[in-house]
């Protein structure tokens, strides 16, 4: 395959470097996909510790005749500038705008079939895939890996409670105080105006508006009546987006929809590599050892794209 450097948002205030992966040999126009990051700030490979899920997927799909575009997340490159400029960051600015521009780059490349551009969202990217599609991405289909239909504040509180239950005495004490603080802030958020939420700090450069803005755009609303092909993927040992809560939320909403395909993988974690532990208190160790996404996962994505 060949890897070409591209710039997302070249003429904007927040240009981002990316890589367009093109198979060496192909006939006709290529199907292609845009990768959309999970939460936090990460580079084009979605590097987390020693894991590089987007690089794995790009190389694997390219070997199967599918082009892709991956790029550095805006908050990874321009985080300080974004906070200084607006005082707060939203999903729209952090993720959605750049994903739509990436889709446009693919659709305007003469080697790519503009009618067969897909989105592959991971974690938070999966949660936002329907919204990105509706706001201008206009994809052929949606591939959602380790996503959820719950609101971001609900997910954060659940993850903290799980860590508290499995942690030591000191961890339980610290997390208990943090959970109590967040519970009060999130409860108040529901009745706040946007301006009030923008003025309420909740972390380094983050305000309650980050959570409120997403809660005001429920992921389910963008998927419930969406007729496009969807592939929803989940690992059994995922400690961030769990089968019992998050995967089930998709099954409850879309389980009887003929346009939706579900794939479940035993022994894989949040990044779709083999898990090292299923203990929430050891979640950070999942990124400490190099592993790669297995062929079956990439085969399933490639088959879904070929079928649509």
Description:
Helix 3 (91-107) packs across helix 4. The protein has 308 residues and is α/β, with parallel strands linked by helices. The radius of gyration is 19 Å and the shape is globular. The mean pLDDT is 93. An eight-stranded mixed beta sheet has the order 1-2-4-3-5-6-9-10, sandwiched between helices. Strands 7-8 form a two-stranded antiparallel sheet. The protein has ten helices and ten strands. 42% of the residues lie in helices and 19% in strands. The protein has two domains: 2-149 and 218-307, Rossmann fold (3-Layer(aba) Sandwich); 151-205.
List the helices and strands and how they pair.
Blueprint: E1 2-8, E2 16-22, E3 30-36, H1 53-63, E4 67-71, H2 74-86, H3 91-107, E5 112-122, H4 124-137, E6 142-145, H5 152-166, H6 169-189, H7 194-198, E7 201-203, E8 206-207, H8 208-215, E9 230-235, H9 243-254, E10 260-265, H10 295-307
Parallel strand pairs: 3-4, 3-5, 5-6, 6-9, 9-10
Antiparallel strand pairs: 1-2, 2-4, 7-8
In short:
By secondary structure, this protein is of the alpha/beta class.
Which percent bin holds the helix content? 40-55%
Strand arrangement across the biggest beta sheet: 1-2-4-3-5-6-9-10
Rg, Cα atoms, Å = 19 Å
The largest sheet, given as strand count, sense and whether it forms a barrel, is: 8 strands, mixed
CATH architecture classification name of the largest domain: 3-Layer(aba) Sandwich
